[in-house]
Amino acid sequence: MLHRTEGVVLRTRDYGEADLIVSFLTRDFGIIHTFARSPRKTKSRFGSSLEPLSYVKLSFWGKENARLPRLTQSDIIKSFQKLRESVDCFLRVSELLKVILICSPERDVSYNMFVFLLRALSEFESGCLNPLIMLSIKIKLLKITGFAPRLAGCARCGASGMNFHFSDGAVLCNKCGHTLGRTQSLSPGCIRLYDCLSRWTIEKIYRVKTDDGLIGELTSVIDSHVKYYISGESRQAGGQAG
Question: Domains in the chain, ordered, with CATH?
């Protein structure tokens, strides 16, 4: 059966001498992994449409819920080439793509996620190196996937607390957080900034001046939280984000 949709290239992996396994976040099918024959050859019909971050129209062939359908066509709608030209920018955005791949179940359709990613890529083109914009988008992405950390009060009893426990993905009070594990102490300003960035629009964030120290503190805990889940430590520890 032939399927047509739109999608963003999340990742490509070499397969054999000239083939690729291409992962997309699609509008109608969620995350899918497809087999592309010979796209690495010079005269491939796919051209540059399979570069990571590319927004494309794609067609793939396979039975419903096939594990690895065959990619038959991919045409660029928007390349987001500017994001690939800066190594620093590409690495930052790639971390978000990893979060999507790890936190979103395969074939779980989320139109909100798809639209959010396209809007985020467009924002990154004009403000990828703006730390507050990057931080806000990362927080909102974690909320959509259900893996956002909980910083407002102890996740177990609701009491006040300032120590973030990575295994729980949340702040715990001294009584509930007595168990061993990696922690990071947070300032009240950091917790307030997290709450604001979770709610504020991008337009408002552009108008706000924020202390660099608070941005650095919150960026540190969010990045460490993301790396904790990407590395698989949370699955080994049995942790779950709140």
Answer: 2-82 (2.40.50.140), 130-237 (no CATH)
